[in-house]
Amino acid sequence: MSILINKDTRLVVQGITGRDGAFHARKMKAYGTHIVAGVSPGKGGQVIDDVPIFDSVAEAREATGANASVIFVPAPFAADAVLEASFAGIELVVIITEGVPVQDMIRIMPVIRQNGTRLIGPNCPGLITPEESLIGILPGNIFKKGAVGLMSRSGTLTYEVVNMLTEAGLGQTTCVGIGGDPVAGLYYQELLEMFENDPETQGVVLIGEIGGDAEEQAARFIREKMTKPVVAFIAGQTAPPGKRMGHAGAIISSGSGTAAEKIRAFGEAGVPVAKEPSEIPGLIKQKLGW
Amino acid sequence: MKIHEYQARDLFKVYGIPVPDGFLCYSVADVREKVPDDNQLRVVKAQVHAGGRGKAGGVKLASSKAEAIEKAGLILGMDIKGYRVGKVLVANAVDIAREFYVGLINDRNSKTITLMASAEGGVEIEEVARVSPEKIIKMPINPVTGLMDWQARSVALKLLGDIKHARIVADILQKLYKLYIDTDSSLAEINPLVLTPGDEIWAIDGKMNFDDNALYRQPKVLAMREVTDDEQKEIDAHEKGLSYIKLDGSIGCMVNGAGLAMATMDMIKLYGGEPANFLDIGGSSNPQKVIDAMNILLSDKNVKAVMINIFGGITRCDDVARGLLTALDQIKTDIPIVVRLSGTNAKEGLELLKATGLPTVSTMSEAAQKAIALSKM
Which chain B residues are closer than 8 Å to A255 by Cβ? Predict the structure, then answer.
């Protein structure tokens, strides 16, 4: 088992004829992801790398039974692409694109909620269920099938941690990059709940960042609802207040969202917080009694 | 992106939010020339991108022109949290019967715009939020319907207690919301919003931030951008595909990915060093990017050692190493450089770099310790 995606996931790539879309579609396919369609308005009817291209997501879904979508279209058009997928009945939409205007995301949230669409991103690396399906731009080779679930607000830091987990013999059920933007789709709480309900997942790694209070909320959820062990890491513990560190989310504002507050909240929930990434595999093993 | 109070006031005026008359002055001579010689009570306010300017002495009352000149002289050239005051706003003071805080913000929890209001306005609003959060009214706005009249009215009614005054404030809330949406704002505050004994309403102070992601479609907002030298470096870096923020330490760092870059800074601090910067070079092995990044790092004279921390994911470490070799060939420097490569093809990458004689390591903690040691030599 796993969460969100597995070997039966049928993926449509929106923006498959763009530079990034084409490159990563090839990578995902090589990993074994079932890419059943691409969408690029005006290029319907073509076939690229054995993938049929459609003018709209609705056509693609009807012809191929796609149930997940990944979006590589440029930022000004990304929100529109999400709605197109949502109204076509796609269940899971992943936005890789960075730089999407925040008010665009705000505007589409009530609509996708109403449609019941699950959204991940924007500005995220995607997600992977190792050895089954990879959606996004994650480097597949460092992941290994196993029993640890992982969620993270950052990209390369996630790879760093996954690599350490894999080298320590700790494979993963599903790893989700939720993205660093202030307004985003699925967040810690929803994912923690999914991991809690996934029989294969035995422990969870949460990689947070300074800014906002999502980690504090996650800590509350863990304290009240989780039975499985969780280990955390917070990046940006030494970042100066008010500075934007590449991620819009990583802003310390008015006394909330500091690393110290997050670490305290996790402590109260019985979640050990690693001082440096290399401590994570050891902490997880300790928690699992391995 | 941030703007100054006087710029927020200009936007307020365009949207029909009343602001007291004021003059923007760049020098004492400017105050002498622009401010009329009368007995109007005025406030002289530093225009800087830093909070807490009142407490820092950047806001002073003046009961005459002579006093305005004197106070402006004291404030101009001041240093407020590292920002030098280059201009002041000299604005009419108004009689205050009641004052409020009102604000709009992109709220990550409710995933929409939230209207906030409090009857306890003024400089202590953050303290109010911390100590008695129940005194802040919060109203999430459905972006599909926008701020509805009943919402604005009910918030204003809670704030004021009587419908006559509530209508006046509700009207201001609607105007602020329209401004917020039109400009892709991420924060818009009026603090304080003031009612006078004669029922006039005034926005005494305003603050607005804008979503950087939306600046491409907000040319008028972008035209208001004012940058310090350090910020200019950050903007130049951004144009080269790099994300750079200058800090005050001595260990320069070059990292791929924002989260990893932050973790690298944390690591440097953990082992007793101080990072000189945040620098995310993104996910490519393009030698030009490395050269650009090195040039930015080395232009900071505080940098005593450089730590390069790359995790090879889709970008393979051997490609990164080749990029580094090309870059280092072009940059001649005596500053010690520590390279840490990990991930895809790390071994091959490190092998390639051995020829340069650079210290290479495979873990982040080793790299941080090594860079700190070298910076002290």
Answer: 126, 130
